[in-house]
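Structure in, sequence out. Go:
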């Protein structure tokens, strides 16, 4: 039969004599989980916690240590090593697919470029000029097959989407 765990005896065994939870459980003829529950239930802090506070609370790593941690972590969870990696492609709210590309002159701040532009550049073997626009022939913005893409200038692309005499384009909400 299990002995009742006495507060003062527990504190002596746990804090002064530094016995393990298993040894204390054997002493009181109790289970390890019962010993841990007793400590938690009575708001007794784990060993090494002064005044019930975690020993690292309020302390900060030195600049040197932070740099070492940063250097050690660099690249460990980036790109394909990240558990959330989706193949380097993401979809915008407008329906276009962005592709992660390294060392490209027109990538955005996150390292992505429109997949339609990338496909056209690969097809042509050159980077597109700033005034060149890749148009989806069938209007489906994530259909980036080369046979569905055509290269237009900015002005000709605008004319294509704005019928002659119209003040409103086909992508406008005011149809």
């Amino acid at each position: 039969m299990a002995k009742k765990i006495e507060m003062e005896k527990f504190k002596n065994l746990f804090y002064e004599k530094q016995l393990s939870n298993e040894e204390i459980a054997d002493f009181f003829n109790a289970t390890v989980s019962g010993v841990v529950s007793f400590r938690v239930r009575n708001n007794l802090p784990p060993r090494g916690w002064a005044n019930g506070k975690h020993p690292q609370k309020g302390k900060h790593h030195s600049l040197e240590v932070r740099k070492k941690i940063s250097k050690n972590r660099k690249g460990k969870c980036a790109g394909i090593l990240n558990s959330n990696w989706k193949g380097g492609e993401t979809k915008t709210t407008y329906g276009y697919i962005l592709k992660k590309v390294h060392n490209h002159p027109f990538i955005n701040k996150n390292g992505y470029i429109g997949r339609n532009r990338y496909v056209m550049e690969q097809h042509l073997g050159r980077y597109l000029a700033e005034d060149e626009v890749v148009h989806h022939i069938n209007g489906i913005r994530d259909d980036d097959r080369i046979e569905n893409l055509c290269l237009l200038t900015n002005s000709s692309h605008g004319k294509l989407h704005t019928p002659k005499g119209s003040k409103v384009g086909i992508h406008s909400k005011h149809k």
